[in-house]
Amino acid sequence: MQNLSPDLARSFARRLGFVYAALFLVVGCYLPYMPVWLQWRSLDADEIAVLLAAPLFTRILFTPLISFAADFVGGRRNIVIVLAWGALFSFLLLWAANGFWQMLLAAILLAINWTTIMPLIETVAAGGIRSGALDYGRVRLWGSLSFIAASLGCGIIIGRVGPEVVLPILVAGTLLLVVGAHRLPRELGARRHVAPNVLRGVKLADAFGLVRAPLFLLFLLAASFIQGSHALYYSFGTLNWRAQGIPDGVIGALWSVGVVAEVGLFAVSGRVIAYCGTARLLMLAGLAAALRWSILAVDPPLWIIGPAQMLHALSFGATHLAAIHFLAHAVPENRAATAQGIYAAAVAGLVLGTATVASGPLYSAFGGAAYGVMAALALIGAASAYRLAQTWRGGLVTGAQPQSSGAGGKTSPPS
């Protein structure tokens, strides 16, 4: 992806933006309203928590394996296409499933296909960042805008039609993702675009080298606890607001408020990273998440919930932005997909999965007050990010001597 002409760089950004938009059209319906659909299918809180967590645990094994395979073969486009078709088939199976166990099997199959698509797309984006051909935030914001449209639109549609409409919307969104996957340029991930010193395929020992690197582990701890603190919100946020008597259309707007703020952050992401640095931005995200969950823990009135949702720009958006920039500059290029897979397995698998399973009994016992536990997780993440800011200087964390600049000679602020 190096030395792209301006026309090719714009085409690359447009196609990648379409894929992000399709991805988050699905996510914008799935996250807020899949619990509503599962409740409509007569599942209780513990069963809902297990169904939502099962895909997260599944990715612990399959996401690193598939990502490692992408690095090993040196290309990602064909794998993304296969996974997109697999996700479509999985949603159709979930739609047709009857009872908890059939739904669980469909959810696991969905996880195998769906959860690796995002790390592979992020790997492609990280390559664009590394080469200087892509302003990540300005492309990624199309995903956030799509999330807003999906969460608002689905809330309105569900309010008028009912929860049964959730799966048809998810299938339609996944069809768009299949189209976007086929539109990705064939040269993505091709070895001829990689610098000579990283032409060799990644080895299994390289993957183990990543998980043994202390700074990489510290980064994983910080990012996973901050993102994992969103578990109760993702699983029971909509149900908790419904229990407070908030209409579905307003709930959709509440989900969208946070993502609007996230779009604003992504639009100026280059300046934010240059000013804050990667690790310090991660620490700020953890503190913002702790504040957000502390507010929601007291079941505040609607006029407080709305502004509190603006903190999503930091609790999720800044965490994600910092993570992508860390992985772009701290990991050797030939291990990029593997690193993304390990990151996804730890953040959106092990930690978020465990927190999601725990959210069922926590919500059953304490209701919205269970957000206090999420605030504690976020504080642990913030403390880990503070330590990372003190020790990482912006270079590679494994596989090479530390450097103070990113690819292409452009300085990457470490902290």
Named at the architecture level, the CATH assignment is: Up-down Bundle
What is the 3D shape? globular
Element string (H = helix, E = strand): HHHHHHHHHHHHHHHHH
Measured on Cα atoms, how large is the radius of gyration?
A: 20 Å
Distance between the termini: 27 Å
**DSSP helical segment count:** 17
How many structural domains are formed by the residues?
A: 1
Helix content: over 70%
Q: Report mean pLDDT, rounded to a whole number.
A: 82
CATH fold assignment: Growth Hormone, Chain: A
Strand content: under 5%
Indicate the structural class. Answer: mainly alpha
Low-confidence sequence ranges: 188-202, 400-413
> How is the main sheet built?
none
Tell me the total number of β-strands.
Answer: 0
CATH superfamily: MFS general substrate transporter like domains
* CATH hierarchy class name: Mainly Alpha
Briefly characterize the structure.
With 415 residues, this protein is mainly alpha-helical.
Describe the structure.
This protein is mostly helical. It has a single domain (12-191, 202-409), classed as MFS general substrate transporter like domains (Growth Hormone, Chain: A, Up-down Bundle). The protein has 17 helices and no strands. The protein has helices at residues 6-40, 45-73, 77-96, 100-114, 117-131, 136-161, 166-183, 204-212, 214-228, 231-243, 248-267, 269-276, 278-296, 302-309, 312-330, 336-366, 371-391. Helix 1 runs antiparallel to helix 7 (166-183). The radius of gyration is 20 Å and the shape is globular. Residues 188-202 and 400-413 have low confidence and may be disordered.
